[in-house]
Amino acid sequence: MKNRKRLYTLIISIIVLMGFLATSLIGYFVARSSISQRLQQEMLPLTSDNIYSEIQRDLLHPLVISSLMANDVFVFDWVNEGELEPEKMQSYLSQIQEKYNTITAFFVSSKTQNYYHPTGILKKVSEDVEADAWYYKAKNANQPYLINIDRDTAEPNRLSIFVNYRVLDKKGEFIGVIGVGLSLLVVEELIENYQQRYGREIYFIDRQGQVMLQSSKYSKELHIQNKEGLDKVFTRILTTPSSSFSFNTVNGSTIYLNSRLVPEFDWYLIVEQVNDPSTEKVENALILNLMVSFAISLIVLFILHLASRGYQGRLETMATKDKLTGAINRQVFDSFFTQAVARGKRHQEALSLVLIDIDHFKQVNDNHGHQYGDYVLTAVAGIMRQQVREEDVVCRWGGEEFVLMLQDCNQNQAIKLANNIREAIAQHVFEYNGKKRQITVSAGVAEYQQQETMSQLIARADVSLYQAKNNGRNCVR
């Protein structure tokens, strides 16, 4: 019985713990997946969009300036006059640079191929020179302007953003390219701002994957193929206008990455984040949930143990004891008898049985009612329990009959005990609902003999009880 109870408790414990564990883990993985998906599909693209929007906003001002320059009457007239006084164009460009606070201003004539700058004529452009390719792209473009990032002709060590505006005369003929330069510091400050605000790594790469612009905290790898993990997605980044994905590094970190092509620069904007901090919060929540779940499981199991123990006690009482008198019932007496016989053999002890019957009990029921009779049965059982030892067994055998099983007790000792019980009952006044009556009992005693069955022992005690009844009752035989 105990082994089965332990097994059931173990099974219930495993079910409860597995239930809490499954609930916590499912919640954790769902939350983590949701966070990862939101980071890839919403948060990183939003950062990328914000940076791109601010770049476009910062380019708007130099675009307007270059447009005004391309439509300035001075430029038309000066070119039509044959570019006779270069200092006039030099002065014009210098005024533009000072007025609009640009890092440079320029004009390249289609007729003379001269590159005009606030400091004078810097050079003649040529199709054979790679550094002049920007001019010919703008000349042959189907749109009013092109934006490119290139080294400044005046300062070759400086990368700048150039707005190259095509200049057309009144007849629509191409006469040159004019525009201004914008410092890349504007974009670098933008990157630094977002780097500090969100703790994400932001940088630009060119079509070959070379890192062109980065924040001050950018790691030293100059090519994305050299960055741990990025070599696996290198081709995917450079062949799609925009993409979002995540991958794991060798050290177990997860990198979330968003890339998008910035057509004005012909560069890719990369936004990275390593190990989303929200995931760490979810992991902490998982640990807390598991601890709480374990604590709740222990509480539930403790309550279950108390409840099962209480219910088991009740069931055992119902199964082993007579509901009315509280004495052991007849159904389980044989198991007690078997244990007592085994104990007697092991310790060489005597074992006796006393069969007790209430005298004239039918008259009690007929004269005073069954409730009074039930009271008498209960009171008699109580008197018996007071007279016997703790290890002795009081059993209601049926109706008004009781059996006492007395361990380590021979026949003479059993007769003495039976007489004590008989006298105690005879002296007791049974009072119930104002009705008083005295009751007597008769008893038959038998001592266990080797190899005797319970039925045989009961039969001998019954014969003795029959003798007591025939001898006038209220006696022990």
The helix/strand order is HHHEEEHEEEHEEHEEEHEHEHHEEHEEEH
Give the mean pLDDT: 83
So what's the oligomer here? single chain
Q: Which range best describes the helical content: under 10%, 10-25%, 25-40%, 40-55%, 55-70% or over 70%?
A: 40-55%
Low-pLDDT segments:
none
What share of residues are in beta strands?
A: 15-25%
Biggest sheet architecture: 6 strands, antiparallel
What gyration radius follows from the Cα positions, in whole Å? 53 Å
Number of strands: 18
Categorize the overall geometry: rod-shaped
- Taking the alpha carbons of the first and last residues, their distance comes to 40 Å
**Total number of helices:** 12
Strand line-up in the sheet with most strands: 3-2-1-6-5-4
Structural class estimated from helices and strands: alpha+beta
InterPro entries: dCache_1, Diguanylate_Cyclase, GGDEF_dom, Nucleotide_cyclase, Rev_trsase/Diguanyl_cyclase, Sensor-like_sf
Protein name: diguanylate cyclase
Enzyme class: transferase
Subcellular location: Cell membrane
What does it look like?
- The chain is α+β, with helices and mostly antiparallel strands.
- It contains twelve helices and 18 strands.
- The strands form four sheets. The protein has a six-stranded antiparallel beta sheet, sandwiched between helices. The chain has a five-stranded antiparallel beta sheet with strand order 8-7-11-10-9. It has a five-stranded mixed beta sheet with strand order 12-14-15-13-18, sandwiched between helices.
- α1 (2-70) runs antiparallel to α7 (277-320) and α9 crosses α10 (370-387).
- The protein is rod-shaped, with a radius of gyration of 53 Å.
- The chain crosses the membrane at residues 7-31, 286-307.
